[in-house]
Design brief:
- The chain is an alpha/beta fold.
- It has a domain of about 160 residues: Isoleucyl-tRNA Synthetase, Domain 1, CATH 1.10.730.
- The protein is about 45% helix and about 15% strand.
- The chain contains 19 helices and 22 strands.
- Strand 6 and strand 7 form a beta hairpin.
- The longest helix has 27 residues.
Length: about 525
């Protein structure tokens, strides 16, 4: 009897379409893609969602400056974001747009109605400081002097009648859910930040007058108000699954609705730290009000900075990922984002650093190691697995140091063979890091090991050994081939095309990790061409 796979629902946030994508969104998409691909390799039934946030004052203003209607403006930019996902080889299963009146609007409006039925929406006057960059009201804590601390522009003083959401009603339930990790927030220090924010959060404005913001989802039964852009946007995580199809019940029939029943709650939302509050406080409170389950994990990543500054149009330091992909290839960009950026902290980018990493770790690292190994294997019809006694004759001679949970730990295996280390040390460290979503740690450990394999060739002067002791050299080559094939399988979530090329070049199938008994050298182009 065939058993049903465990489901796994993962999302990126939906980037705001006031400007083209930058390297920060590419990082988020890559992080989510690595987790999604790893989950598929673990035989999970994965649904991976991305999309775009397309309403609000900032987009209406940007469209006006571009002399376009808001619809024309977002239609043009949505294609750019979809193109980036395609060029970066992101394996998302769906792409939701909040301007989609058939897929998104009915569910967003149904969610509003559920909150209203729970008695959690009321009308009142609001006076405060509105930041167009945030698309939200901010407080003095969000400012540096007279400007927004993030967007570096003064907010607008606004007084208007809006609908409000009774967020304060759910403060204690949120505190309990987060403290008990019914909804887990990663990393742990973001959990503490959320708990501290909850102590000071009250009810929140939930709509804007449609006379001021017409570009958005209308409030059900009140055409004078438009749903607040973040209120509408957060609903994407359930509308993409069919919630509210035909403005009906989420249990109605239909393919998209069955997705809702199958995949909600989300297993993980991947979001940036600048929108953490919306995902760790506002969104779960809305779900509680609507009687829906909370997401299991909120994964909060840091920023990609340039010379210590957050990327922004005003500073002129925005890094467009498309030229990087066109110059170095998507696999190199994927590697850089996984290996060279902190998962949960901020990271700094420079063109010089990217070039150094490409040349050092990819061209002269993995690429050169594979080429050397294949050249020596090509001297034989095939390399078969030696007997166990023979495998132990050529151990790694130096200690290895792997990363574990953010700290360094030394394993002393002076008499351990490479294939033993792969199966009993590297693989376990990799699985532990991936389970904790420490994806940078996982791939760094792989490259630590690859660096040691380069030294392993020199330890035994293998290039001489294939001539002077050809049969003994086959044992060392087995260790190298097995290690490279194992590494290829581990990097499938990170660099899927590179992984398959490695496995095919070693004469094994890229779709199965059954016990490898033989390797042979196949013709292949160098994994990473040198770029001047």
């Amino acid at each position: 009897m065939k058993t049903e796979k465990d489901k796994f629902y993962i999302t990126t946030s939906i980037p705001y379409l006031n400007a083209p994508p930058h390297l920060g969104f590419a990082l988020e998409a890559l992080q989510a893609d690595v987790v999604a691909r790893h989950s598929r390799l673990r035989d999970k039934d994965v649904f991976f969602l991305s999309g775009t946030d397309e309403h609000g004052a900032k987009i209406a203003r940007a469209a006006g400056e571009a002399q376009k209607t808001p619809k024309e403006f977002v239609d043009g930019l949505a294609v750019v974001f979809q193109d980036l996902l395609k060029k970066l080889n992101i394996s998302n299963d769906d792409f939701i747009r909040t301007s989609d009146k058939e897929r998104h609007w009915p569910g967003a409006q149904l969610l509003w109605k559920k909150l209203a039925e729970a008695g959690d929406i009321y009308k009142s006057f609001y006076k405060g400081l509105y930041c167009v960059g945030h698309e939200a009201f901010i407080t003095e804590k969000d400012m540096e002097g007279n400007v927004c601390a993030i967007h570096k522009k003064p907010p607008e003083a606004i007084e208007e009648e809006n609908y409000f959401f009774k967020l304060s009603k759910y403060t204690n339930r949120l505190l309990e859910a987060i403290s008990k990790e019914d909804m887990k927030i990663l990393p742990s220090f973001r959990k503490e930040e959320t708990l501290n924010m909850l102590k000071e959060i009250g009810d929140v404005s939930f709509s804007r007058p449609s006379k001021d913001i017409a570009w958005g989802v209308p409030v059900p039964s009140d055409a004078t108000q438009t749903m607040y852009v973040w209120c509408d946007a957060l609903a994407n995580y359930i509308t993409a699954l069919g919630y509210g199809e035909s403005f009906g019940s989420p249990t109605s029939t239909g393919n998209r609705t069955s997705k809702f029943e199958r995949f909600w709650p989300a297993d993980i939302h991947v979001v940036g730290k600048d929108i953490m509050k919306f995902h760790t406080i506002f969104w779960p409170a809305m779900l509680m009000s609507a009687g829906l389950s909370l997401p299991k994990i909120i994964f909060v990543h840091g920023w990609v900075n340039v010379k210590g500054e957050k990327m922004s149009k005003s500073l002129g330091n925005v890094i467009d990922p498309i030229p990087l992909i066109e110059k170095y290839g998507s696999e190199a960009v994927r590697f850089y984002l996984a290996h060279e950026t902190s998962v949960f902290g901020d990271s700094d980018y420079s063109d010089k650093h990217f070039s150094e990493i490409y040349s050092g770790l990819l061209v002269n690292g993995l690429g050169n190691l594979l080429a050397r190994t294949l050249k020596m294997i090509s001297l034989y019809p095939a390399i078969s697995k030696p007997e166990e006694g023979a495998l132990a004759r050529y151990p790694i001679k130096k200690n290895l140091e792997f990363l574990t949970t953010g700290e360094k730990k030394r394993w002393s295996f002076e008499q351990a063979s490479p294939s033993f280390l792969v199966d009993n040390v590297l693989w376990l460290a990799y699985q532990k890091a991936m389970a904790a979503y420490e994806i940078s740690q996982a791939i760094k450990n792989i490259w630590i090991y690859l660096g040691r394999l380069d030294e392993y060739i020199e330890d035994y002067k293998l290039y001489k050994m294939v001539k002077s002791q050809p049969e003994e050299a086959k044992v060392v080559l087995w260790h190298l081939a097995y290690s490279l094939a194992s590494v290829a399988w581990m990097i499938k979530p990170f660099m899927p095309e590179t992984a398959d090329k490695i496995l095919l070049s070693l004469g094994v199938e890229p779709t199965s990790r059954e016990e490898w008994k033989e390797f042979s050298a196949k013709e292949f182009a160098h994994l990473f061409p040198r770029i001047q």
